[in-house]
């Protein structure tokens, strides 16, 4: 019997895709400018390779990513400047983040029958002491438990620890919880690995290239498709 519905944050409850694109473009422009003599195509290829390696390790610090790119060409960096860029990066993401239109009403309806929680990876903001979900109080107040993975000694998803930590706080077994997320490797596979019921949200409003994988888990295009939940997970 399902007793809880747990969520990822970015691209699951809010759409930050435009913000990330704008922030990435600006960061790449700034970074390339200090690597004098490096051709743009060589730079962007190295940047993307390095960024993917960081993503595959669930390592989220943009400052560390940029420093790794600089180090590849043995360039000189200014730590104060990089910190300033990182602040600007996350400000851009925040300013372009929109709550999905149906998110608040879906959470409110689910709360009438299920316990609601949030399991989200830290975004690596070194200048803030809280996760960016706090910027959206209309959502933040809905969660009985919030686990920010990748900080406070909790490993980042897809490690089992953040999922297990949330379940322990709710005093539930994995089979009693649904987990909704947009990232196939981190969210769907991470939740499935410990026995939770994953739902892959490929939101119709998000502009991105979804991985082409065969899966038997429910795939939805809107949070509204979670209602009623019993259609996705019959008793």
Ranges with pLDDT <50 over ≥5 residues? Answer: none
The helix fraction, in percent, is 40-55%
How is the largest sheet built, in terms of strand order?
A: 5-4-1-6-7-8
CATH topology of the largest domain, by name, is Rossmann fold
Number of helices: 8
Average pLDDT number? 92
Describe the model.
The protein is α/β, with parallel strands linked by helices. It folds into two domains: 4-15 and 98-231, 3-Layer(aba) Sandwich (Rossmann fold); 18-95. 41% of the residues lie in helices and 14% in strands. The protein has eight helices and eight strands, in the order ββααααβαβαβαβαββ. It has helices at residues 17-34, 40-56, 62-72, 79-95, 103-111, 137-140, 160-170, 184-193; strands at residues 4-7, 14-15, 98-99, 115-121, 145-149, 177-181, 197-201, 219-220. The strands form two sheets. Strands 5-4-1-6-7-8 form a six-stranded parallel β-sheet. A two-stranded antiparallel ribbon has the order 2-3. Helix 1 runs antiparallel to helix 4 (79-95), helix 2 packs across helix 3 (62-72) and helix 3 packs across helix 4. It is elongated and about 65 Å long. The mean pLDDT is 92.
């Amino acid at each position: 019997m399902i007793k809880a519905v747990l969520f990822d944050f970015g691209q699951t409850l809010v759409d930050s895709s435009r913000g990330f694109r704008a922030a990435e473009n600006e960061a790449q422009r700034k970074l390339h400018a200090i690597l004098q003599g490096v051709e743009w195509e060589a730079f962007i290829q190295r940047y993307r390779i390095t960024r993917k390696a960081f993503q595959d390790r669930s390592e989220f610090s943009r400052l560390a990513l940029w420093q790794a790119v600089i180090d590849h060409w043995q360039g000189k960096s200014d730590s104060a400047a990089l910190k300033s860029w990182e602040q600007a990066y996350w400000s851009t993401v925040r300013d372009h983040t929109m709550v999905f239109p149906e998110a608040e009403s879906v959470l409110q309806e689910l709360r009438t029958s299920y316990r609601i929680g949030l399991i989200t990876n830290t975004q690596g903001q070194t200048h803030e002491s809280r996760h960016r979900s706090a910027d959206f109080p209309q959502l933040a107040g809905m969660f009985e438990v919030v686990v920010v993975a990748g900080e406070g000694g909790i490993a980042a998803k897809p490690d089992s620890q953040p999922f297990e930590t949330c379940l322990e706080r709710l005093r539930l077994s994995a089979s009693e919880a649904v987990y909704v997320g947009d990232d196939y490797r981190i969210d769907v596979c991470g939740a499935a690995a410990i026995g939770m019921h994953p739902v892959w949200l490929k939101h119709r409003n998000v502009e991105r290239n979804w991985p082409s994988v065969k899966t038997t888990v429910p795939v939805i295009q809107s949070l509204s498709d979670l209602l009623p939940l019993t259609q996705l997970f019959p008793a």
